[in-house]
Amino acid sequence: MEAPPVTMMPVTGGTINMMEYLLQGSVLDHSLESLIHRLRGLCDNMEPETFLDHEMVFLLKGQQASPFVLRARRSMDRTGAPWHLRYLGQPEMGDKNRHALVRNCVDIATSENLTDFLMEMGFRMDHEFVAKGHLFRKGIMKIMVYKIFRILVPGNTDSTEALSLSYLVELSVVAPAGQDMVSDDMRNFAEQLKPLVHLEKIDPKRLM
Amino acid sequence: MQTFYHALLPRSSLSCGSLEGEVASREEKQLEASLDALLSQAADLKNSLGSFIYKLENEYDRLTWPSVLDSFALLSGQLNTLNKVLKHEKTPLFRNQVIIPLVLSPDRDEDLMRQTEGRVPVFSHEVVPDHLRTKPDPEVEEQEKQLTTDAARIGADAAQKQIQSLNKMCSNLLEKISKEERESESGGLRQNKQTFNPADTNALVAAVAFGKGLSNWRPSGSSGPGQPGQPGAGTILAGASGLQQVQMTGASNQQQSMLSGVQMAQAGQPGKMPSGIKTNIKSASMHPYQR
User: Fold this and answer.
1) Which residues 56-115 of B are in CB contact (within 8 Å) with A?
2) What pLDDT is attached to residue A153?
3) How many CA atoms lie within 13 A of B149 on its CB side?
4) Using one digit for the tens of pLDDT, what is the confidence trace for A139-183?
5) pLDDT tens-place string over residues B21-60
6) Could you say which DSSP state residue B211 is in?
7) d(CA B204, CA B104)
8) A41 touches chain B (CB under 8 A)
9) ipTM of the complex
10) Per the CB < 8 Å rule, is A26 touching B77?
11) CB A134 within 8 A of CB A168
12) What whole-number distance in Å separates Cα of residue A159 and Cα of residue A170?
């Protein structure tokens, strides 16, 4: 008798379930320089990278109570960069030992007609904002320090005003599901930013 | 790491006769890999120490405390990674390795110069005792022996009592210091040095997570079924809601109902939605695919 094939399941394609591990904090404007300085020392040695992104959040309201949320992001300072479509699931709560917020994450690069496509599919834009800041990397960890700008006239990304006097600091890792030691590494890194920024897992449902 | 003047012998191979060929080569590979990692970590550490010293010596009049703290944080981070590399499970026990010099010569060696960045020009009788030593100086060794005999002489119970009293004194001192700091005027200075605001953190996280505070935010309970929102049309302008209510009373046909549907979304905020217009909107936009 022949040996059965390596996988008994039908091969249907699909992707590995990726999870995003997230820690967030903020830093006031006047302490931004110290934070950037420290991050430049701690993180991988690369040219300091700044970004200016416009993010739009689309909702699809179905029969279920909770709408389906997709985030579309485009770069305003890099011409020719693809648009970025992202799905973020509900955060997995409950495990007190896990030091970071964990949620399912699907990232796709798309062409420029993303908004038209989403509109035709029935999505409606819920809100949008402009994010401007700095990007650092350390191994698989990504650290973003950015300021959120509210868009005053819908669709016009030139008329913006800052949402607050602070920069949002996010430490995130996108890794396959089940790798919980990633959150330990993130916590160790967060310790090194301690007196300047307090990075912690913040449950967005608490802030509704 | 090349071994030319000295040999790195695993202690185990001195005692037992022959090792399995593959086990030995696997261990060798592990050894080489971990030595490479250690070497790169040590080089990074050396570089950051060098730059810190340079900063202290040359820029001491312009130096600020955050900059010094950054250098310290960098050094501590690198020491951490160095420790992690040493503790890594794939690192063999270096304690089991012995380094013995094979050839000593008073001639200048260019290869060695290159490898040590010009610090060690000659592998000779003067250099080897310093670089390959594993025991401390005789005086230091004497002092250490003295200390260990003293410690052994005291006895376990007395030692424990001394440890406890030391801990208690330290915690008392810490409490006194923190109380003093809180009450003194430097507490007022601390306000200036606050580098983050937790309320801001919450506001920013809420903005990114579900758009709180951004122009198109609607509270989750109030949205009606299938609103025909044009892109970006959901701006809530508090002053204009009165105007929109006036327009709503005249709405009857499809076109106008689409428009007032959008405005109704805004006026829906305070919860006043006339039902006639609502049914219009329902029929117009319930099924976005069936036009």
Assistant:
1) 66-67, 69-71, 73-74, 76-77, 80
2) 83
3) 5
4) 889 999 999 999 888 877 788 888 888 999 999 999 887 777 888
5) 777 788 888 888 888 888 888 888 998 999 899 888 888 7
6) -
7) 66
8) yes
9) 0.85
10) no
11) no
12) 25
Write the Ramachandran bin of B267: left for phi over 0, alpha for psi from -120 to 50, otherwise beta: alpha
> Which of A42, A147, A166 would best serve as a mutation to test chain B binding (most B beta carbons within 10 A)?
A166
**Minimal CA separation from A153 to chain B, in Å:** 8
Point out the residue among A122, A127, A165 whose CB comes nearest to the CB of B211: A127
* Interface contact flag, B203 A163, Cβ < 8 Å: yes
- Residue B232 contacts A where some CB pair is shorter than 8 Å: yes
Among B29-33, B108-112, B156-160, B202-206, which is the least confidently predicted range? B108-112
Task: Tell me the C-alpha distance between B253 and A119, whole Å.
Answer: 24
- Interchain CB contact of B194 with A (< 8 Å): yes
Residues B61-88 have pLDDT tens digits of 888 888 888 888 889 988 988 888 888 7
Helix axes A32-42, B65-87, angle to 10 degrees: 30
- Pair A91, A101: CB distance under 8 Å: yes
Type and span of the H or E element at A125: strand A124-138
The closest alpha carbon to A157, from A132, A122, A124, A133, belongs to: A132
Query: Are the C-beta atoms of residues A98 and A84 closer than 8 Å to each other?
Result: no
Task: Find the DSSP H helices in chain B.
Answer: 11-15, 21-58, 65-87, 110-115, 127-131, 138-154, 156-183, 186-192, 198-210, 241-249, 254-267, 275-285
